[in-house]
Amino acid sequence: EFNSFLDAQEEYLIKTGYSERTRETMRNYISVVMRYFQNAGITKLEELNSSQVSAYLLTLRGHAKSTVRCELSRLRKFLSYLYLLGYTSENLAPHVPEYRLGQAQSIIKIWESEEINAVLKTVNRASPKGKRDYAFITIAAELGVRSKDICNLKLSDIDWELCSISFVQSKTGKPNTLPLSEKVGSAIIDYLHIRPQTKCEYLFVSLNPPYGKMKSIHSAFHRYVARSGVKVPIHAHHGLHSLRATVATKLLSADVSPDIIFSFLGHSDRESLGHYIRLDIENLRECALSFEDGDLL
Q1: Which residue is catalytic, options 171, 183, 237, 285?
Q2: Catalytic residue selected from 131, 238, 244, 250
Q3: How many whole angstroms separate alpha carbon 44 and alpha carbon 7?
Q4: Which residues contact 254 (CB under 8 A, 6 or more apart)?
């Protein structure tokens, strides 16, 4: 029965569009949890109850706060799937408590337009490196594309006639198509004029031989932020990932439908939007920015 559930969950996750990597992570985690329950004498999944769930939760004592929160989230999903797929008659997920890290550890920097402009002004656009870095920061700030997906962008992903960028997302495995605004397009063209002559299919490449695909762009962004003088709250996450949350915030402040934002950001499920932004819509509107000159859309 335990193996039957794992197979049923796998089939469900495939139908709902989860990536192979996410499915493998869930299967490995749930296998560990089920072994715990088996060792505790559980032979049928229907036998699970809130007391046994609580006993498992006690095994998480001593782990880092972030680890505990992640474990609780996965356990909640596991119990939800048990109920959803008919292996338990009661949904035990509500018995798993919420675990908050606290504002100091969970806040995400929401960038104001002038702050992003201040960061971009520190980029030396007279140099090849500056032109390249300006282009990928602009893509992140305007379109909210994940940093890994920016690194994975290929020259062939850009359709200049349709003014769009199409790519397969690394996290979800799903395709996404975004509008190529004049601001983003101009930044890319400016970079392409100095891009090294190479057979590499990826858009962003190293400026040193053999001119291969860039592996990471995080450190470069952090250096520009430090030079800009923009004040970032202590413990606030302010890497390229925060630009993605900023894009969502701007869209919400412009009364764009959450369904459109869900599609624009390319989430695999609607829960992701809430988890990703970590704030409700009203709170987002309080700290959100208005568009300036329609740069985003």
Answers
A1: 171
A2: 244
A3: 16
A4: 290, 291, 297
Q: How far apart are CA 239 and CA 147, in angstroms?
A: 10
**Rounded mean pLDDT of the chain?**
84
Residue 276 is among the residues annotated as catalytic for this protein: yes
* Six-digit token string for 248: 């969502």
To the query of whether residue 241 is one of the catalytic residues in this protein, the response is yes
Helix/strand/coil (H/E/C) assignment for every residue in 34-52: HHHHHHCCCCCHHHCCHHH
User: Is the N-terminal amide bond of 179 cis, ω within 30° of 0?
Assistant: no
DSSP string of 39-97? HTT--SGGG--HHHHHHHHGGGTTS-HHHHHHHHHHHHHHHHHHHHTTS-SS--GGGSP
Cα(134)–Cα(217) distance, rounded to whole angstroms? 11
Task: Examine the residue annotation and report whether 238 is marked as an active-site residue of this protein.
Answer: no
Marked catalytic residue, from 146, 195, 238, 250: 146
Give pLDDT tens digits for 136-160: 999 999 999 999 999 999 999 999 9
DSSP H or E run through 167: strand 164-168
244 catalytic residue (yes or no): yes
Q: Is residue 213's pLDDT more than 90?
A: yes
Distance CA 240, CA 142 (A): 12
Q: Is 61 a catalytic residue?
A: no
